[in-house]
Amino acid sequence: MTRRSGDARPLPKGTLERLAACQAVGLHYWSDHPVAKHFWAVDDHQQAHVVKIDRDGGTARHVCRPGLLIDTECAGDDEAVPYAPTTPQGEQQQMTTQENRPAQGEAVQDPQASPHRKESPMSSVSHPTGPAEEPQFDPDDGELGEDSIDDEPTDSFNIDDLRYDEAEFHHGDIDAPKTVTAIKVRKPHNAREWFMLHPSQEYQLPAGLYERVSDDSVTPETYLVLKRHHDLFITKLGKSALKTVRLRLAVNSLGTPFLWDMRVPRKGQLVDDYQRSVREAAEQAEQTWVKLEWNAPNRAYDYSTAPGDLGEPQFPVYKTMFEWVKLGFKDRIIDKDDHIVAVEFQGRQA
């Protein structure tokens, strides 16, 4: 099927995802960044920023780290903000991309150039006024241009080549319980995962986590810090560098367990809308299947309950919470004073 140059063309899914990720952190998507999973973005004042996307976790971060080619003052807080993989604005996304493009005769800003540099009048780029080019093949969009051939490929086999005897599928099957040997520590996937929480206190653990940022990785490494080593992560201002969480055993509707590191307020700290929405959703998830969806304007979660019967949750209670925590963090547990991460934080030699 061919496409005429005047026809409306929907944006590729990858572009919609980039727009949604940048929008979640209050920026506008501009172009791809040389570093994988990073994108250039601009703010309302056309200053360049960098956004990092985590597709597995469904989150975006406004990052400010060495090596990302940022030479302007950066206000990013590196906080993971959930985003919807496909934005609900639909047709508005095409308008957004058009609004972010420079108008005819307007200067084009290089994202790698400092927004504080003054451009000379000769630096402006005028757009050609000739006829629009015919659309070419876009691998993300899956559409073909005018030069495409509509001939259908010839099948090299028929339906009988695909058909199996159903008895073959059951040959040698053994009805044995599945044993999980790995578990992830993460949040529920935004807007695309039904999950439940084990209601027992035996499968809950208040804990302190330390997020280590290094030049070798753009994603922070999360370490579990034992209570007796909490004082190793006190800053010079007397504040704790640890993130206080409650680890909860969860399982999704596909039977995959995970540990939800629910953020909880510190002692004496007020409960904000984000923490309140997480607590309400968790209470509901102890009774029925729940799906979370990030509400960016309110900076809190909305949640919905499953309209149908998804069955009973298959919690992996053949292991204790202590065993699941050790399995989830593995070699990322700070259990001694001379742990290399603790030594690095304090700036002393091992």
Q: What is the strand and helix layout of this fold?
A:
Blueprint: H1 13-24, E1 28-32, E2 38-42, E3 48-54, E4 59-63, E5 81-82, H2 91-100, H3 166-169, E6 184-185, E7 195-197, E8 204-214, E9 217-225, E10 243-252, E11 257-263, H4 273-285, E12 290-295, E13 300-305, H5 321-329, E14 333-334, H6 340-346
Parallel strand pairs: 6-11, 9-14
Antiparallel strand pairs: 1-2, 2-3, 3-4, 4-5, 7-10, 8-9, 8-10, 10-11, 12-13
| Domain count | 2
Question: What profile does the largest beta sheet have?
Answer: 7 strands, mixed
Mean pLDDT: 77
- Rg from alpha-carbon coordinates: 25 Å
Percent of residues in helices comes to: 10-25%
Label the overall shape.
globular
Q: If helices are DSSP runs of H or I spanning 4 or more residues, what is the number of helices?
A: 6
First-to-last CA distance: 66 Å
- Determine the strand fraction and express it as a percent band: 15-25%
DSSP strand tally: 14
Secondary-structure element order, as H and E?
HEEEEEHHEEEEEEHEEHEH
SS content category: alpha+beta
What does this structure look like?
The chain folds into two domains: 13-121, no CATH class; 184-346, no CATH class. 16% of the residues lie in helices and 23% in strands. The protein has six helices and 14 strands. It has helices at residues 13-24, 91-100, 166-169, 273-285, 321-329, 340-346; strands at residues 28-32, 38-42, 48-54, 59-63, 81-82, 184-185, 195-197, 204-214, 217-225, 243-252, 257-263, 290-295, 300-305, 333-334. The N and C termini lie far apart (66 Å). Mean pLDDT is 77; it is low at 87-99 and 111-151.
